[in-house]
Specification:
This protein has 158 residues and is mostly helical. The protein is 62% helix and 8% strand. It contains nine helices and four strands; from the N terminus they run H-E-E-H-H-H-E-E-H-H-H-H-H. The strands form two sheets. Strands 1-2 form a two-stranded antiparallel sheet. A two-stranded antiparallel sheet has the order 3-4. It is elongated, with a radius of gyration of 20 Å. The chain starts with a helix and ends with a helix.
């Protein structure tokens, strides 16, 4: 493979997937997701404000918007959600080839999902939708799990 093709496969929109950390990618992904024009409302007054902003009548809702994660998005802009998830999938194809990235992912998410309270490592994998289907993932998970366990013991979580 020539260098140009190799570089384009490891760089997604100015992000070097060979060096980015899990936390950096997570933050960039959240920023990118936040640019998707989703609207949320939690009562009728907020709903009226959103519909006014979108210039939509209540009777037009089903024709003009999709519901997504508790919010709504104009059908004409809904492709941005699919674009975002395609971007994530494309990046993960490279990121999941990096043991250091996978380790960072597992270690960060072990604390994020409070496994130090539940001690449910198997359930944790289901919660994050990750299967240990490669040796790389297995090695990274075992390393993160061991460090997590030792941290919890050291800090008297158990």
């Amino acid at each position: 493979m020539n260098t140009t093709k190799q570089q384009s496969a490891t760089i997604v929109k100015d992000i070097n997937l060979n060096t980015i950390t899990y936390k950096e990618f997570k933050d960039i992904s959240q920023e990118k997701f936040n640019t998707i024009p989703l609207y949320y409302f939690f009562n009728s007054e907020q709903k009226r404000e959103v519909l006014k902003k979108l210039d939509i009548k209540e009777c037009e809702l089903s024709d003009k918007v999709f519901g997504f994660q508790g919010g709504i998005i104009l059908k004409s802009q809904a492709h941005q959600i699919e674009d975002f998830y395609n971007w994530i999938k494309k990046a993960e194809q490279t990121l999941y080839q990096r043991k250091d990235y996978l380790y960072q992912l597992f270690y960060y998410e072990l604390f994020n999902h409070e496994v130090q309270i539940t001690c449910d490592y198997e359930g944790f994998l289901k919660n994050i939708g990750m299967e240990l289907d490669t040796d790389l993932k297995k090695q990274a998970f075992e390393k993160a799990k061991k460090k997590h366990w030792n941290y919890c013991l050291k800090h008297d979580y158990f």
